[in-house]
Amino acid sequence: MTIPTSSPRTIPILLYHSVSAAPADWIAPLAVTPTTFAHHLDVIVSRGHTGLTVSHLRDALRGRTPWPERPVVVTFDDGFADFADAAEQLIARRLPSTLYVTTGALRGRGSPAPELRLPPAHMLSWSQLAELTQRGVEIGAHTHTHPQLDVLPAGLAAQEIRRGKDLLEDELGREVPSFAYPYGFHRDSVRRSVRMAGYTSACAVKNALSSPPDDQFALARLTIRADTDTARLQAWLAGRQARIAPYPEKMTTRAWRLYRRTGGWRGKRLPNATNATRS
Questions:
Q1: Is 273 helix (H, G, I), strand (E, B) or coil?
Q2: Domains in the chain, please, with CATH?
Q3: What's the DSSP call for residue 145?
Q4: Which residue among 43, 107, 144, 277 is buried most deeply as judged by most CB within 10 Å?
Q5: Cα(92)–Cα(41) distance, rounded to whole angstroms?
Q6: pLDDT tens for residues 28-81?
Q7: Would you state the torsion angle of the CA atoms of residues 201, 206, 209, 213, taken in this order, to the nearest 10 degrees?
């Protein structure tokens, strides 16, 4: 890939989950209050950053569009109902975002998918998605049941990757070009399945800054936790206090994948997205 000469050294891609003063217990470590979220967005705006969706970032990485001043990408995973209020805060500041939804968890089509891996929580409804897209939110896929894709048989992983995209495209009447790996877990065969499904970008986690040479099918993101203060956010926005992707996968990541594949994790709560990917 040819990197445009005007490209930035680092690109912070922020990963949020829930914006709530009373989140479900299991997601609370990864939830921020509406007040904290507002402070985060005000920091982004005051520093002169330009918000991009993941697909807009991909276009800039490909040289199809010019790089904006101080790019930043705001993403959300899972599809919690409180995103509707978070979107209002983003829209008020003219900041675009990308929302990756787990289709089997959405409300409005009966009970959640019986094989859903997410614990109970109040989620968005199918009927809210179209309005969000009309207001500048990019909708991306996050599988149907939120499984650990890197330890699934290849056929089942491909079905999960494709099903969320098909359901969302049927609902929205438009292409859904971006994907996010549940827990950040991925490997070569999973990334190939994402490409073959027709996606043009995908987000991992990595808890690192992205950069122009980063893998467009495993973009690094920085997980926002309940205790992520504005000082830490400012450091990330300045390209500090985090590794810069891409970098080689760690041996500990491979060992953790083998442990999960052989069933060592069964009966135990999986780590949250902050620690799930160690590549």
A1: helix
A2: 13-276 (3.20.20.370)
A3: S
A4: 277
A5: 10
A6: 999 999 999 999 999 999 999 999 999 999 999 999 999 998 999 999 999 999
A7: -50
What lies within 8 Å, CB to CB, of 78 at 6+ separation is 17, 18, 27, 100, 101, 102, 105, 118, 123, 142, 146
Judge whether 187 and 148 are in contact, CB under 8 Å: no
Mean pLDDT of 76-100: 98
pLDDT at 4: 54
Q: Nearest 5 degrees, angle CA 273-CA 93-CA 203?
A: 25
Going 111 to 271 to 252 to 250, the CA torsion angle's sign is positive
Which amino acid would we find at residue 236?
Answer: W
| Secondary structure (DSSP) of 186-251 | --HHHHHHHHHTT-SEEEEEETEEB-TTS-TTSEEEEE--TT--HHHHHHHHTT-SSEES--PPPH
- The mean predicted confidence, pLDDT, of the chain is 91
Contact 82, 20 (CB under 8 A): yes
> Model confidence at 278, in pLDDT bands (50, 70, 90)?
very low
Residue 101 contacts residue 142 (beta carbons within 8 Å) = yes
Q: Cα separations (Å) of 121 from 29, 50, 111, 129?
A: 14, 32, 12, 18
Write phi, then psi, for 106 (nearest 5 degrees). -65, 150
Nearest to 215 by CA among 260, 261, 279, 151: 279
Q: What is the dihedral of CA 136, 141, 146, 152, to 10 degrees?
A: -160
* CB 183, CB 159: distance < 8 Å: no
d(C-alpha 191, C-alpha 126), whole Å: 27
Mean pLDDT in residue range 237-252? 84
Structure token pair of residue 247: 């970098």
